[in-house]
């Protein structure tokens, strides 16, 4: 509230003056496998603008406060899916989260590594188990029939069927927000099921039965207990739980 | 604690109420079945149920059963219809309302026992 008042009061002069800076604290869960036995919190005082991304703030910490801070980021535009983090208690992409949405002037932003995967250092986790689950659902187009002379035609309705699931950028926000995945790492997880959905409901793909069988295994779709954390966390606004439920129904009706 | 929304708490409460119902059932079967060892044994067990924790527990087990039953219906609706997923939040508030009302009703009916015991 104070921040809003502050902004409106300076608005007429904004053209001449620089934007007001927020004084915020960045609290990061640090872990160095060479020194630490347990992760510990470290706090950095930072000045940032309301419109800065959380990633800018983390970069500020790394560049000007502590060079040893380790995290992933690549495109910084919410496409590569590298910088999924647990920001203020929720999984988000640091490059798609603005400071003003998570902190006020004088406030604190807490940043932790995503859960359920082994922390290698600071905010960097071992993504291999995540990508193993991804590979398990055969994430590639399978069609053994001879290709037509032109394209494999798909109607608009058929394309719409897989429109949401083909938006996934594999950032792992969903899988690492899932309470089932935290306690049972063998669960393929929401991200893999979304990827499976993308091929199961692709009218041109022919391996539907095989993928439904993978989804029907005890590491598959039935582990989902509809906690909706994945749907809330997805930075691409994919209605993940809805897609998982569609796969559940497809598995069920296949057997009927 | 992860800051999930309604769905996460619905899931957690469903688990907890399920465990509570299972524990209640096991204790129930054991204490009723203990009659085969004679009346004294049976009564010794049943007198412990006069402890305050068991008296208050009755209210919570009622609420737990109601929650588990109605949230189970919510899950069935979500699993079988797309609209169920779209309105899961509203349905959960409905489930919570029913749970609280029946918990309060149980507390009202059990009031003499809650205060005075047998």
Describe the structure.
The complex is a heterodimer of chains A (256) and B (118). Chain A has 256 residues and is an alpha+beta fold. Chain A has two domains: 18-124, Ubiquitin-like (UB roll), CATH 3.10.20.30; 128-144 and 151-255, Alpha-helical ferredoxin (Fumarate Reductase Iron-sulfur Protein, Chain B, domain 2). Helices cover 33% and strands 14% of the residues of chain A. Chain A contains ten helices and seven strands. Chain A has helices at residues 2-10, 54-64, 99-102, 128-136, 156-161, 179-183, 190-200, 208-215, 229-233, 240-255, and strands at residues 22-30, 40-48, 84-87, 90-93, 108-112, 119-121, 124-125. Chain A has a five-stranded mixed beta sheet with strand order 2-1-5-3-4, with helices on one face. A two-stranded antiparallel sheet of chain A has the order 6-7. The radius of gyration of chain A is 22 Å and the shape is elongated. Chain B has 118 residues and is mostly helical. Chain B has one domain (6-116): 3 helical TM bundles of succinate and fumarate reductases (Up-down Bundle). Chain B contains six helices and no strands. Chain B has helices at residues 6-33, 39-48, 52-80, 82-86, 88-109, 111-116. Classes of the chains: A alpha+beta (256), B mainly alpha (118). The interface between A and B is medium-sized, with 21 and 20 residues.
């Amino acid at each position: 509230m104070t921040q809003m008042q502050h902004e409106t009061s300076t608005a007429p002069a904004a053209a001449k003056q620089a934007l007001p800076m927020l004084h915020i604290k960045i609290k990061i869960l640090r872990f160095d496998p060479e020194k630490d036995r347990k992760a510990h919190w470290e706090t950095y005082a930072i000045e940032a603008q309301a419109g800065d991304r959380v990633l800018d703030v983390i970069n500020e910490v790394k560049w000007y406060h502590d060079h040893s801070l380790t995290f992933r980021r690549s495109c910084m535009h919410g496409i590569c899916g590298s910088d999924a983090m647990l920001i203020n208690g929720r999984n988000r992409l640091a490059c798609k989260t603005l400071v003003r949405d998570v902190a006020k002037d004088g406030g604190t932003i807490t940043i932790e590594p995503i859960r359920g995967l082994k922390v290698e250092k600071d905010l960097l986790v071992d993504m291999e188990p995540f990508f193993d689950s991804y590979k398990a659902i055969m994430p590639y187009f399978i069609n053994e029939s001879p290709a037509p002379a032109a394209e494999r035609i798909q109607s608009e309705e058929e394309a719409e069927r897989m429109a949401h699931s083909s938006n996934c950028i594999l950032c792992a926000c969903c899988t690492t927000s899932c309470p089932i995945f935290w306690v049972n790492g063998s669960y393929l997880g929401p991200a893999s099921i979304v990827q499976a959905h993308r091929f199961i409901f692709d009218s041109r793909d022919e391996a539907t039965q095989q993928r439904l069988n993978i989804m029907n295994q005890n590491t598959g779709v039935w582990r989902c207990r509809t906690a909706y954390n994945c749907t809330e966390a997805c930075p691409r606004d994919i209605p993940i739980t809805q897609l998982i439920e569609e796969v559940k129904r497809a598995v069920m009706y296949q057997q009927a | 604690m992860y800051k999930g929304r309604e769905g996460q708490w619905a899931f957690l409460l469903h688990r907890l109420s399920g465990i509570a119902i299972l524990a209640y059932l096991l204790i129930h079967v054991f204490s009723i079945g203990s009659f085969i060892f004679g009346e004294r044994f049976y009564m010794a067990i049943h007198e412990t149920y006069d402890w305050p924790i068991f008296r208050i527990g009755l209210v919570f087990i009622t609420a737990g059963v109601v929650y588990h039953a109605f949230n189970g219906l919510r899950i069935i609706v979500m699993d079988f219809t797309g609209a169920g997923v779209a309105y899961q939040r509203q349905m959960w508030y409905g489930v919570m309302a029913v749970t609280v009302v029946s918990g309060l009703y149980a507390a009202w009916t059990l009031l003499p026992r809650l205060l005075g015991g047998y």
